[in-house]
Amino acid sequence: MRSNISIRWLGYSLVLTWLLLACGPKKRTISGGNETRISGTAKHMVMDQVARQQLHYTTFSGRAKSNLTINEKDRYDVTANVRIVHDEAIWISVTALMGVEVARVLITPDSIKVINRLTSEYVSEPFAYLRHFTGSGLDFKVLEQLLMGSVIDEIMGDDLEVWQGATGYTLQRQANDLQYVVRVGADYQNEYTSIAVPARGQHLEAYYADHGIAAGNSFPNQLEISIATPQLTLQSAMKYSKVVYNEKIELPFTVPSRYTEVQ
Questions:
Q1: Of 108, 110, 112, 186, which residue is 20 to 30 A from 137 by alpha carbon distance?
Q2: 7-258 in CATH: which number?
Q3: HSE (CB half, 13 Å, CA atoms) of 6?
Q4: pLDDT tens by residue, 247-263
């Protein structure tokens, strides 16, 4: 782990990966009111219905408006073009005013690479770099599912607890030092996901709304995805204006020779 990567650079990489939002003043509570724990056949019925809502795609391409707040004071408004090759790569280009690209990211199961065009710098790190800020509960598959609004696979264990409320269901599971919570509506669409590591003071949250249908898939057009850690807090909100599935996409990523690697 490189110790001298600045908070400024961390902010760039996180806005590009869309996964950091903080437990700040915008934090909301997802509640189904009085809930009753269910088990047996009823529990497995809920699990089956949730599984049926999972996305099935080979590629994804979307465009979203977003804002990012770092440590509850520094705010950035950007537009992002997001492209995903299922199980292989996440590519994001971030533009500011007048459509000028300010940063680009490429994430694979093994690595994260970020270009900062404002400073002519770049970062190249193993994927484990992100876990320093998000905890051990994050791998490439979890990140992809969080970005797409799917219920993460890690919550679907035999020890899963399911609680039924007036407007949906709450799924809870403890796995080692990780606490998972997912809230789905009566239509079994993901409304909220939480991954917490209390021992390390880390908490990632994601809120989803405005689900629409594209190519047979239900996708949340509004997302808030978040993180709070001892090092920093970030808060992001995004709204998609266009999503496309299963079309051929390109993931261009070339670092200009004059750029300096942040070390």
A1: 186
A2: 2.50.20.10
A3: 9
A4: 999 999 999 999 999 87
